[in-house]
Amino acid sequence: MPHEVRAVIAMKKDAPAEVQTILVPDPGPGEVLVSIQACGVCHTDLHYREGAVGGSIDGFPFLLGHEAAGIVEQTGPGVTDLRPGDFVVLAWRAPCGSCRSCRKGRPWYCFDSRNARQPMTLLDGTPLTPALGIGAFADRTLVDAGQAVKVDPAARPEAAGLIGCGVMAGWGAAVHTGGVSYGDTVAVIGCGGVGNAAIAAASLAGARRVIAVDIDDNKLDVATQFGATHSVNSRGTDPVEAVRRLTDGHGADVVIEAVGRPETYLQGFAMRDLAGVLVQAGVPAPDVTIELPFQELFSRGGALKSSWYGDCLPSRDFPVLIDLYLSGKLDLGAFVTETIALDEVEVAFERMQRGKVLRSVVVL
């Protein structure tokens, strides 16, 4: 029997998100029903509301929310590794095991990630498109069992859920995509949730210097709490020259661009050392293009990489990050600026756009 639950819906492009009652079916084969305890408000949810991702206007209405933790309530036929009562973090990558990337032993690039097959709907039967295949601004959601990653239940849900997207994206950009290692110099452009997660990861990986770059002194102060050794306010300082000065004139071994703008990407390209790595973790607007000097692209060497979800494997990485959190090595709680109710998501979007929060987290 379908479950009637409250949920945050984006009905049409640029319209305010609204709380509605929706129908969530019982889990079918390979699916699980999860009772959501907490869900972070991520920029990607705002992009869905704006029609910038998820099939543009063809995807509406969207069921928003994806950065979530909760309790398995029911499991469908064939689910053997999860039981009701398990504490899980939801992932938007659930490797299929059979696509060409999975067959090559690279499931973190899975090209056919699994989602629930049954739709969640409005009361009139209109199918909803769940954000990143999850849809967790809701009392309950239906996901593929591979999307529900069991972690230590000692973790606070409002902190644990954040590894489901933003924290994992930044952490993986540094550790997996960028390959930050002991003694490296690292620059991170953009000190929001993703950028600060990259800073924390670089610091724990043993980077010699971790340079935070932003235009907001308050964000730069916060970045030092996550492990930044130096900070550069690029509003009044040339960040490329500043990073070079802080790296003995060479530039950084790894630069992580966590903004998604052409200007900051070009800064990152220029502030690398020879053979340095530039990792793009910021999500760009769909109509943005970039132009690079071809000669420098060749002569500087190194690598330009895009980080897809921190190139993570959730079943491997989520439990590790939760253990680091519980041991006091990764302060997930510091990412939580405020906790809010389900009907405050639209207000949280406005605060996020003004740069007033690292994360607002809906607690159910």
UniProtKB/TrEMBL annotation:
One of its GO terms (molecular function) is mycothiol-dependent formaldehyde dehydrogenase activity. Keywords: Metal-binding, Oxidoreductase, Zinc. Signal peptide: none annotated. It is an enzyme of class 1 (oxidoreductase). Its EC number is 1.1.1.306. Its cofactor is Zn(2+). SMART domains: PKS_ER. SUPFAM superfamilies: GroES-like, NAD(P)-binding Rossmann-fold domains. Residues 17-362 form the Enoyl reductase (ER) domain. PANTHER family: NAD-DEPENDENT ALCOHOL DEHYDROGENASE, S-NITROSOMYCOTHIOL REDUCTASE MSCR. Belongs to the zinc-containing alcohol dehydrogenase family. This is S-(Hydroxymethyl)mycothiol dehydrogenase.
